[in-house]
Design a protein that fits this description.
This protein has helices at about 20, 35-40, 45-55, 80-90, 100, and strands at about 5-10, 60-65, 70-75. By secondary structure, the protein is an alpha+beta fold. The chain is elongated and about 55 Å long.
Length: about 110
């Protein structure tokens, strides 16, 4: 976790029911009821975010409680394994190098 970036985004919306949480990152998926239909949207945004995070060798998840809002969290490595392998091939320093350690992105 020291060489990762974690970002969380919290809203104060209507929340997502537990039975819908596993599907929120699917293409065109919406928590479809009268309240969410008024907000609009196609259900593509979280699908795209999930795939961008995964392309960076990361993980995304959501925590939510109906009536209290949702928190979307993703964690990505500062240097993905594929990039680190390429750096090693080129003779560059690994992620544990002093150059990377000086970039402390935590609060």
């Amino acid at each position: 976790e020291n060489d990762t970036l974690t970002v969380s985004v919290k809203d104060q919306g209507i929340g997502i029911p537990a039975d819908k949480l596993s599907r929120v990152f699917e293409k065109f998926e919406r928590v479809d009821d009268k309240d969410t239909r008024q907000a609009g949207g196609t259900g593509i945004g979280l699908f795209l975010v999930k795939h961008l995070v995964e392309r960076h060798e990361g993980h995304i998840w959501v925590e939510s409680e109906p009536g209290k809002g949702s928190t979307f969290i993703f964690r990505i490595p500062l240097i993905p394994v594929q990039a680190e392998e390429e750096m090693q091939k080129l003779g560059m320093k690994q992620s544990g190098s002093p150059e990377l350690q000086r970039f402390n992105l935590q609060n």
